[in-house]
Amino acid sequence: MRHIRPEPGTFPPYYENYYRHIPAGADPLEMLAVQPTALHQLLAGMSEEQAAFRYAPGKWSIKQVVLHIADSERIFAYRALRFARGDAQELHGFDENTYADASGADNRTLTDLLAEYAAVRQASLALFRGFQAEQFDLQGRANQNPASVRALLYVLAGHEAHHLHVLAERYLPLLKAEA
């Protein structure tokens, strides 16, 4: 049931940017379960100096990307919880750049950030595994757009897949070139 893609109208159109990273027929909850391994493998052996790398001026550091994934996951999981519990109140959006700038991620160790990320992921997995099948179709509104619980599960998996791709394609080749 979870592997049924969200229907148009149950999510903001810009979520498609993340859904395209989820293969047809894939279970997004299973993707969430394996993504921590992929992130750890991608960042394995990285020094603190490398984790502070930005591939261009004005772009986030690798540390900021890791904390952005965790921060966004907290927000999307919170929305899913509210909607799954029948909360009909409109929820506000958030500015990811303000969050990244205020996060202090570059003042923390990569190990600490990855531990926080892992804790957030475990909480998200427990939350979504606890939903009943019919709760995945419940909807609410966030940031002036509709969103179903199913759509939020998909955006969690697709959002991280997007950032794993960005790290692999934009950050790591430049770090290797500097080495």
From TrEMBL:
<protein>
    <submittedName>
        <fullName>DinB family protein</fullName>
    </submittedName>
</protein>
<dbReference type="InterPro" id="IPR024775">
    <property type="entry name" value="DinB-like"/>
</dbReference>
<dbReference type="InterPro" id="IPR034660">
    <property type="entry name" value="DinB/YfiT-like"/>
</dbReference>
<dbReference type="Pfam" id="PF12867">
    <property type="entry name" value="DinB_2"/>
</dbReference>
<feature type="domain" description="DinB-like">
    <location>
        <begin position="34"/>
        <end position="166"/>
    </location>
</feature>
